Amino acid sequence: MVQLEVVDSSTPRVQPEPPTISVVLPAHNEGEGIRHAIEVVAGVLRQCNVSHELIVVDDGSRDDTWEQIREAAARHGYVRGLRFSRNFGKEAALLAGLRAARGKAVITMDADLQHPPSAIPEMLKCWREGAMVVHAVKRDRSTDSFMQRARAKLFNGLISRLGRIDLESASDYKLLDRTAVEVLVERLPERERFFRGLAQWIGFPQASVPFSVAPRAAGTGKWSLLGLVNLATTAVLSFTGAPLRLVTILGSVTLLFAAIVGGEALVSWVRGNAAAGFLTLEFTLLIIGSFIMISLGIVGEYIAKIYEELKGRPSFLVHERAGFEDEAAETGREREPSRFAG
Ligand code: UDP
Ligand code: MG
Which of 59, 135, 63, 56 has the alpha carbon at shortest distance from 92? Predict the structure, then answer.
């Protein structure tokens, strides 16, 4: 059992020369394919002739992913591994990778080779030409099933419209300059993150490189429908207050409806035939009732988010490390800027 301890930042550690490129690979139950993915990505980087490191984050896998990562780290000096204490989700794994990365630029990509490493040379070219955030955007989703495509379209379309950021065809396959990484890691204190949106939100010179989604190299997709719904909720809530405006709109619509029905009732009363109208009454009650509950739900979602952020729990906990100078665990917190200081 590894003790959780906070690394004392006052003792300087001898750091080797930082590599040019760090690649962050979040992995959840990727035991079957992770070693192959590491070899392929490293091969492409060698061909590009850049010094590199690979940071593989084991996001609470239940298979032998960690053993594979540890072996790879023992064999190759450029592989470094982090193991979460449990499954914290891909967003947390990306954050952990970005924090640990030392490269002058960091590439984030899936560990299942669905983000083809062949796009890396093109991304490096954009970076050398001055882009500080390079998005790899999906050219087509021909390998996804119809349902997956419909789901992605609905998801990205909704957030693009509500959050006023362009997420159509967006993916987590990106290259970030050190400046962009520092901003994402140090300057954005939020704990619930939506990497895809934040990478756009920060601005700086951005560029896009198209890629075709490859079929999964091994294993199966890890997203449940519920997982996607949660991601979508986080995305919408963290980027826009638009749903709250929907509450106001619902209220206005109900008011208009009330005025019409009320007017009609008044006229009936004046004419002396006010008894009929049970159906209207029933519908009115039901509609207003549902509107109120939906509105409460929306407001509640925001309050829940505020509560989550306020608790200030770390986004992840690291249990083990491999290939780091000190292989002790860390709490994942010590480098987070305190929101109550300064
Ligand atoms: N992943 C993760 N934590 C999770 C779920 C997924 O780190 O809780 C990783 C997974 O290992 C993979 C990437 O995120 O490297 C994308 O996951 P997946 O291939 O299941 O999703 P899709 O390709 O459908 O987007
Ligand atoms: Mg995948």
Answer: 59
Higher per-residue pLDDT: 109 or 340: 109
Q: Which atom of ligand 1 is nearest to the CA of 25?
A: 15
Give the bridge partners for 81, in sequence order: 56, 322
- pLDDT tens digit string along 80-104? 999 999 998 898 999 999 999 999 9
Q: Which amino acid is at 152?
A: A
Ligand 2 midpoint to CA 62 (Å): 17
CA distance 179 to 163: 24
Alpha carbons 186 and 169: distance in angstroms, whole number: 27
Ligand 1 atom with the shortest distance to the CA of 94: 7
pLDDT tens figures, 116-125: 899 999 999 9
The CA-CA-CA angle for residues 296, 301, 302, to 5°, reads 100
The 8-class DSSP code of residue 337 comes to: P
Nearest CA to 126 out of 185, 174, 182, 184 is that of: 174
Report how far apart the first and last C-alpha atoms of the chain are (Å, whole number).
36
State whether the beta carbon of 83 lies less than 6 angstroms from ligand 1: no
Q: How far is the CA of 318 from the centre of ligand 2 (A)?
A: 23
Long-range residue pairs from 120-123, CB within 8 A, at least 24 positions apart, any chain: 120/41, 120/44, 120/45, 120/48, 121/44, 121/47, 121/48, 122/209, 123/175, 123/209
In the structure encoding, which two tokens stand for residue 203, read together? 């601005």
For residue 91 and ligand 1, the question of a CB distance below 6 A is answered with no
Pairing of strands 174-177, 105-108: antiparallel
Nearby residues of 290 by Cβ (< 8 Å), 6 or more positions away: none
DSSP state of 284: H
